[in-house]
Amino acid sequence: MEQVDIERAEGAARPASDVHGSVHLVLADNVVHLDPELTVFAAILEGWRRKQSAAFSSPTSTIRPRLRMIRRMEEFTGQYPW
Description:
mainly alpha
């Protein structure tokens, strides 16, 4: 399967790095993390939470229960969802 550079994709409204909830908005540059997989997982969840908040999703009835479900899945399987 051919990989597509999302940032340069034809018809893209804006670069992927500018999309609300992008990981680079959560992770600090030039930092070496002790547990990179856990850090990326936490950053993905935080970016998703921010994106849902920007879409005016309810923190108590939508966002928190979904975040808990994803964290429970990771705890149950012992693996990250990628």
